[in-house]
Design the sequence.
């Protein structure tokens, strides 16, 4: 299987703090990969680099054969204009572009559009897949009506797929937490991704909801979408993931099948610490 | 169904078909929000159109026309502030650009009005890009400061340039004319004489405002409008959903600028004279207040807000010196009792409100025994209902 996402020597520094320190891994097409690590290990920072939100200090991220990290000419670096240029979208790949290439993500702390209905939240994510011109929207041409109808049907398809059974016209703030998580996944799927990044999808879910989430993630993989998830729930990770990457202090300390990673001494040390009495 | 597929771009992953057909939403005037709003809009337009036949005095017409111009301005600002969530404190600058460009092109250069209209639109698009581009990376407070500065720059420039007539402004802006007949000639309809050009402009303003209100409403419902609202609610999430937030924001600025420019042109031709005093910061604040007061992002709310802000000082004229004090107190009272506006964007007509079923309470019966927690097998299935809540 070919690599869908390739991360090489990814390094991210905030001033003196190194959040990600030489991370390398790859995601193959249609697999479920879990990224785990103690709090502050740099998992979310790595996600933000991969999806184009943060600009890594060094390293390469290649998604589907396209480079997400762009080289900046040395001249701009010398003049100190890098941040300015990048804030205007130059010498970087904007997250919206990464999404168009086929990488969708969810956020650790639910970030749904709070003043939009459930259905609108999902149709909003269809943005890049929709043919709707300015004049067509103003004049309500038949093409516009068709596009809107297709968009709504597609969104309902995704809502049904994730098992959302509530009223689609409700505002997302009116939903219980578990349902909001579902809507967020439906919204990410509506961008028609090849790779789905889930940042702690099980956080705050109860046992039943976690079970449903696991089935849903397998169903998503069944569509041929690769899933990368950051998760703290080890039971869920061990059962779901085909491969696990373990981070600690921004460095990768293990990469392999769940059974292998579980017994890796470095991983055990990272999570539980070294037993000093035994060493003595 | 195939038609619908063609309406979407080719994407690698398509949603499975919905599991069930949703019932068609009701379309009646009293059974659907949309039907009711349309009927209400039609009624409002009819009422406004009938007004000159009741009272075509110069005073009433001029107040009513400026109220309509306020509605247009507020609809434009609503795109920027209400939909895209970009706080703009210098919005009157676009109004000034519209008024001055049409004034200069018709008086100094002697262009016909329709050509000046096209020039106005182009100038406003340019102004929207000029103010929009540098502010793209700013958020909230900083954005407000920059737009405030931009508003003042335009006013002070107009005050000091020769071509804009300096502090005294531009006079003698001609009316629209079609061949030998111009709006100045007056006309008579249904036995009533409409001698003043103000009456024409009242109707012209009405038509422009109807187009402006419907147009802004339609844009807000489409792909672009959803992008605006997404940017307003959560910029990063919008970006993650494939929305280029730069384009979304700058398009909101451009639409807002064009709407304000059209209002500016209407005002310039309606009053036939403009001066920098009409474009003070006070007016930016008033328009913003109208939008916030009415309800950000809500078409009926913004119209009500615009009418309130433009008509209240006139209706309170009897109170002479006190009127702005009373106006201010009224505003405070309204904001205290309706903090999200007179008619919020999320408002649902009272008789259409749905009761929300409360989720089942957590009881011993629904609790999961600890023994099950240990022995869960998550065998993959392809059953369509598998993702459902267990």
Sequence:
């Amino acid at each position: 299987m070919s690599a869908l996402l390739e991360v090489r020597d990814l390094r991210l520094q905030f001033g003196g703090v190194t959040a990600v320190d030489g991370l390398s891994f790859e995601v193959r097409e249609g697999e479920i990969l879990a990224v785990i690590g103690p709090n502050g290990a740099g998992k979310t920072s790595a996600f933000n680099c991969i999806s184009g939100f943060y600009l890594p200090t060094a390293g390469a991220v290649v998604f589907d054969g396209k480079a997400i990290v762009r080289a900046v000419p040395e001249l701009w670096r010398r003049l100190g204009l890098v941040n300015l240029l990048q804030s205007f979208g130059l010498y970087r790949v904007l997250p919206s572009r990464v999404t168009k290439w086929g990488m969708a993500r969810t956020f650790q702390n639910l970030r749904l559009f709070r003043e939009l209905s459930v259905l609108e939240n999902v149709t909003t994510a269809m943005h890049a897949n929709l043919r709707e011109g300015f004049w067509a929207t103003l004049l309500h041409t038949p093409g516009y009506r068709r596009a809107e109808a297709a968009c709504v049907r597609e969104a309902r398809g995704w809502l049904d797929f994730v098992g959302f059974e509530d009223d689609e016209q409700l505002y997302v703030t009116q939903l219980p937490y578990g349902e909001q998580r579902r809507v967020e996944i439906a919204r990410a799927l509506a961008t028609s991704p090849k790779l789905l990044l889930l940042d702690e999808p099980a956080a705050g879910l109860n046992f039943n909801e976690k079970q449903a989430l696991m089935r849903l993630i397998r169903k998503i993989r069944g569509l041929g979408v690769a899933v990368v998830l950051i998760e703290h729930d080890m039971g869920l990770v061990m059962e779901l993931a085909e491969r696990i990457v373990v981070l600690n202090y921004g460095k990768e300390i293990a990469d392999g099948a769940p059974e292998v990673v579980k017994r890796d001494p470095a991983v055990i040390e990272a999570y539980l610490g070294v037993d000093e009495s035994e060493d003595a | 169904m195939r038609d619908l597929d063609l309406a979407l771009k080719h994407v690698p992953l398509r949603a499975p078909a919905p599991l069930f057909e949703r019932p068609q939403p009701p379309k009646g005037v009293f059974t659907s929000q949309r039907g009711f709003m349309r009927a209400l809009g039609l009624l409002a337009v009819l009422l406004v159109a009938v007004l000159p036949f009741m009272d075509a005095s110069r005073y009433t017409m001029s107040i009513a026309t400026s109220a309509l111009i306020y509605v247009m301005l507020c609809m434009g600002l609503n795109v920027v502030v209400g939909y895209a969530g970009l706080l703009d404190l210098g919005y009157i600058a676009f109004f000034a650009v519209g008024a001055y460009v049409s004034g200069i092109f018709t008086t100094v250069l002697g262009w016909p009005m329709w050509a000046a209209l096209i020039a106005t639109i182009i100038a406003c698009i340019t102004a929207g890009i000029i103010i929009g581009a540098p502010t793209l990376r700013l958020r909230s407070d900083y954005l407000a400061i920059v737009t405030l500065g931009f508003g003042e720059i335009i006013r002070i420039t107009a005050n000091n340039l020769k071509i804009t007539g300096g502090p005294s402004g531009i006079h003698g802006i001609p009316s629209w004319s079609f061949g030998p007949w111009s709006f100045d000639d007056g006309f008579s309809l249904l036995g009533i004489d409409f001698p003043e050009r103000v009456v024409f402009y009242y109707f012209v303003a009405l038509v422009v405002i109807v187009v402006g209100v419907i147009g802004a409403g339609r844009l807000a419902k489409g792909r672009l409008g959803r992008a605006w609202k997404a940017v307003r609610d959560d910029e990063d999430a919008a970006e993650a959903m494939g929305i280029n937030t730069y384009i979304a924001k700058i398009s909101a600025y451009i639409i807002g600028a064009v709407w304000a420019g059209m209002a500016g042109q209407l005002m310039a031709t309606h009053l036939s004279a403009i001066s920098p005093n009409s474009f003070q910061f006070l007016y930016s604040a008033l328009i913003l207040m109208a939008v916030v007061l009415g309800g950000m992002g809500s078409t009926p709310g913004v119209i009500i807000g615009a009418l309130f802000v433009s008509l209240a000082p006139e209706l309170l004229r009897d109170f002479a010196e006190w009127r702005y004090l009373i106006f201010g107190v009224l505003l405070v009272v309204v904001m205290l009792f309706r903090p999200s506006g007179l008619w919020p964007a999320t408002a649902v007509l009272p008789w259409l409100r749905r009761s929300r079923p409360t989720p089942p309470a957590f009881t011993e019966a629904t609790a999961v025994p600890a023994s099950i927690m240990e022995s869960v097998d998550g065998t993959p299935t392809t059953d369509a209902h598998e993702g459902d809540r267990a």
